[in-house]
Amino acid sequence: MIFKKRMNGGYAGVDDEDAGRGLVSDENALQKHVAFFDRNNDGIIYPWETFQGFRAIGAGYLLSFISAFLINLGLSRKTRPGKAFSLETLMLGVEVKNIHMAKHGSDSGVYDSKGRFVSWKFEEIFAKFARTHSDALTSHELKAMLKANREPKDYRGWVASWTEWITLYNLCKDKGGLLKKETIRGVYDGSLFQQMEREKLATAGKKKE
Q1: pLDDT digit string (tens) for 150-182?
Q2: Whose CA is closest to 190, among 37, 5, 43, 61?
Q3: Based on CB atoms within 10 Å of each CB, which residue in 127, 173, 205, 206 is the most buried?
Q4: Which value, in Å, is the radius of gyration of the alpha carbons in the chain?
């Protein structure tokens, strides 16, 4: 595995009339998920910050460049409603506080419409699709999940979900080709990205010695 330290999370679930039980009440999990890419912590993620974030977790230059362009192009206008066309809007900034407004369809439903973490939806992923190992997904099982989550004619959602999960699988699968439950949990709250950056820095430091 890439990560030696377990990510236990520790989310406290509360009842919610709109989205059921098991929500993060004190913080927006989706904001935490993307905040890693806000490299200067100003609340706006620009394409070059997305690029830096992908590089920080070990993605190659080409993947980082393509991801930065496509992600910011797809999310910027959705998270900055009402912004008049200007040089600033051409910079494709993504506002962290409004990231829930950019949720796409055909996803797992682990984030609700307000960007909160829905724990029972997270557990449902493994109850439905983890057939080989109860705490991990194989490549085949991951693709089965993506297919099952597709909403009719939601082509953008299909592409977005496929891109997100396949990128995650390629970057974070273990030596046996498994995407571990603890790794996926870390993606949802952003802690995985921080861990990956620390791992990369530590590896780079050893090479210099």
Answers
A1: 999 999 999 999 999 999 999 899 999 999 999
A2: 37
A3: 173
A4: 17
